[in-house]
Write a structure and sequence with these properties.
Helix content: 25-40%
Family: Belongs to the GSKIP family.
CATH topology: copper amine oxidase-like fold
CATH superfamily: Hypothetical protein (hspc210)
Radius of gyration: 19 Å
Number of helices: 4
Number of strands: 4
Domain GSKIP: 34-134
Order of helices and strands: HHEEEEHH
Shape: elongated
Protein name: GSKIP protein
Organism: Corythaixoides concolor (Grey go-away-bird)
Number of domains: 1
Strand content: 15-25%
Strand order of the largest sheet: 1-2-3-4
Largest sheet: 4 strands, antiparallel
GO cellular component, one term: cytoplasm
Distance between the termini: 35 Å
CATH class: Alpha Beta
Amino acid sequence: RMDTDCNPMELPNNTEFEEDSDYRDFEGTDVKDMRLEAEAVVNDVLFAVSNMFVSKTLPCAEDVAYINVETRERNKYCLELTEAGLRVVAYDFDQTDDRLQTPYHETVYSLLDSLSPAYREVFGNALLQRLEALKKDSQS
């Protein structure tokens, strides 16, 4: 009898890959659903801001979603997420101001880094803690 290292039937049901954009639009469509993308953005950085959620009042579409964020400095922003990236569209939740000409950021990290020194500090500390943990793991 041949032993196998891994029986696929014994693997836990891991649904995490659905969040990964590489897999999400794999089958037959190249259109990203921006609401899913926005949820992933929120989940990524929620720990480093006071509050962050996808807007339920502004319309989400395949090509645009809006994210409300409150920094640790208590500043509120409404962010627009499109294929071009993220940008501030208002200085309050669930608002857009067409007169605002703010630059697009490729990542939520770069956008928040430019808006919130407290975000930068919390994110940096979390990164250091992860690196320390990896270092400990590799030494044991």
